[in-house]
Amino acid sequence: RRHVLEASQQLTEIINSETSAESPEPSEEAELVNEEESALHCLWVDKFTPRRYMELLSDDYTNRCLLKWLKLWDTVVFGKEKAVKKAKPSVEAHPPFNQPKEQQNKWKTKVQLTEEVLEAELDQHKRPKYKVALLCGPPGLGKTTLAHVIAKHAGYNAVEMNASDDRSPEVFKTRIEAATQMKSVLGANEKPNCLIIDEIDGAPAASINVLLNIIHRKDAEGEAAAGAGRRRRREGGLLLRPIICICNDQ
Question: Which CATH architecture has domain 48-79+110-219+237-249?
Answer without folding.
Answer: 3-Layer(aba) Sandwich (3.40)
